[in-house]
Amino acid sequence: MECKKQDNLKNCNCTYEPCPRKGVCCDCIQYHLRMKQLPACCFPDDVEKTYDRSFKAFAKAWNL
Fold this sequence. Notes:
Elements: H1 5-11, H2 25-34, H3 45-48, H4 55-61
Organism: Sedimentisphaera salicampi
Protein name: Cytosolic protein
């Protein structure tokens, strides 16, 4: 399957500039889950900017 990196970048809200996985969603998701985190796209923009990608931060952001 072909990676649609350029299309993915249009919707990627990750503000971590040196990230080598930007736009490569399958790599991003695998990386963050391995780190027991969620990727930026799971968070509202204001929360994403804190770089706290923990499950706890996700639940708090969405009032779960």
